[in-house]
Amino acid sequence: MTPSPQPQPQQGQSLNVIALISGGKDSLYSLLHCIRNGHKVIALANLHPPVQDAQEDIDSFMYQTIGHAVIPLYEQALDIPLYRAPISGGAVDTARIYRNDATEESAPEDETESLVPLLKRVMQCHPEANAVCAGAILSTYQRTRIENVACRLGLTPLAWLWNYPVLPAPVERAGVATQAGLLEDMAGVGCEARIIKVASGGLDEGFLWGDVSSRDGLVRRKIERA
């Protein structure tokens, strides 16, 4: 069964948004974009590793789980209700574009489908919910899967950061040459984004707890040189 076309909000309509959060900087920055554009974030939703008190993150094609242990603090810090559920299954459908005929019954083993019961639970508690946002930037794999699930549930998918590196710079950054435009913009609004794990060539333990969105830009310049 092909999902229905994406619901289109009327111009100027304020949406009631479920914000998908991972513990990373991008999902939180996407939440800020929702508010900046006049929408209301009514709930937070998070998928965590199967054992909720596990300290280690898991390898996933779809979900970022590093730092998942601090997610409960989001509810306190933002004063927005939080809903969580475990990730089940794995990356069964690894095609770049998620299958258009997916249903809850056809592929319950794919980790993407973990979103369905979580979002349904949020919608039961918040029947006014009509949109969902995520922090996808360049991952077509992630974005199309969220869109697939959102459309099946009648939610408008929002991806404020999509293709952010190639979008025109905001007026506050006009004329500034940088390879880290997203981080510069996060710094501009006062975000604090700390490195809590390194798994990349050139980045060693000396980068841990560095603030990549600090106003002085020291860590960003250090990363660009790495």
From TrEMBL:
One Gene Ontology term of the molecular function aspect: diphthine-ammonia ligase activity
EC number(s) stated in the UniProt entry for this protein: 6.3.1.14
Residue stretches in coiled coil: none
Span of the signal peptide: none
Enzyme class: ligase
InterPro entries named in the record: Diphthami_syn_dom, DPH6/MJ0570, Rossmann-like_a/b/a_fold
Domain Diphthamide synthase: 16-165
GO terms for biological process, alphabetical: protein histidyl modification to diphthamide
Catalysed reaction, written as an equation: diphthine-[translation elongation factor 2] + NH4(+) + ATP = diphthamide-[translation elongation factor 2] + AMP + diphosphate + H(+)
Name the record gives this protein: Diphthine--ammonia ligase
Species whose genome carries this gene: Aspergillus nomiae NRRL (strain ATCC 15546 / NRRL 13137 / CBS 260.88 / M93)
